[in-house]
Design brief:
two-stranded antiparallel ribbon, alpha+beta, 10 strands, about 375 residues, 4-stranded antiparallel beta sheet, about 55% helix
Length: about 375
Amino acid sequence: MSILIFIIILGILLISHEGGHLLVAKMNGIHVSEFMIGMGPQIAHFEKGGTVYSLRVLPIGGACVFEDDLEQENMIKGTASQNDALPQTETSSQTTAEESAVSDRAGLKESHRFNDASLGARFATVVAGPLANIVLAFIFSVFIVNFSMTDLPVVVSVMDGYPAAEAGIEAGDTIISVNGERVYLYREVQVISQLNNGKEYTIVVERDGERLTYTFSPMYDEEEGRYYMGITGGEYVQFTGLKALEYAVYEVRYAATSVYKSLLQIIQGQVQSEDVAGVVGMANLVSETYDEVKTYGWLSTLLTMMNLAALLSVNLGVINLLPIPALDGGRILLMAVELVRGKPVPPEKEGIANTIGFVLLMVLMVFLFFNDIKNIFF
């Protein structure tokens, strides 16, 4: 059951992401050769409106394939490969006899190749995938906020002898910001605390309608091996109506900033291998979470799975915006170069960059696969 739930969650996220690309591409008259979910050999497909919609055997990626991608691959290879089924993670390069036939039937004179469309249309098409993931996460979050409790950044207790108490923070204070960063959920305070690494805090709280500012350094706990402010918090409230929409935005914001901060930690070398996960690790997380919550009834299980789906959806959206070839962010970067140069990057160079980026992504996926196996079983 947990494996099935994971496949369903991943399928929804991929369909949402690639569906964003597809919808905006068609709105702008850009021809899409193939809309695919999964990687590897096809297990099912159909054609509609000049586009092949295919389901592939490995549920670990997807792509909207444009005619330009096929041409770029032919430039790199020197010739068209009729049976090529090279999987891509994003707007990728694939050549099949079926796609060539679809292109002929579609009548490309009636629709644009991707690179023939305006810069604005191309940008909208590329950014639509990550944006669709953000919107999906928001929809999930609306249900989560409506049917569960939200942790407001309210101080529940202050520990004697710790820096927060000595600075003057009191139970009942509502935390407004930490180190200049506005917070709306207590989880945000916890994340900032975990990443602070012993640096000085500047915390703004609201007490009886008045805003007060406190500055102090955290205390290091040798047994725990980490720094503490000395507060516990989180006032749990359930919201409905417009308030639920507002706090759904805060939920998505929290997820996005968490991904961003985690990426910074990886770049700075502050993350160990057991702290990162690939597809197998995510499947294991879904499985463990499902086993923990299923005894609490179907509603708790559904909300928990929706929360995981929202977090993974934001992860997918944010990571795809990284300026790496073969990801959406890589294409956006090339468009920025085009805007500066006043002319597009040569297709053969773009194709080579995407191929290199794809190879690096495959190497990363292989590393994450074995890393997941090590973390789960050893």
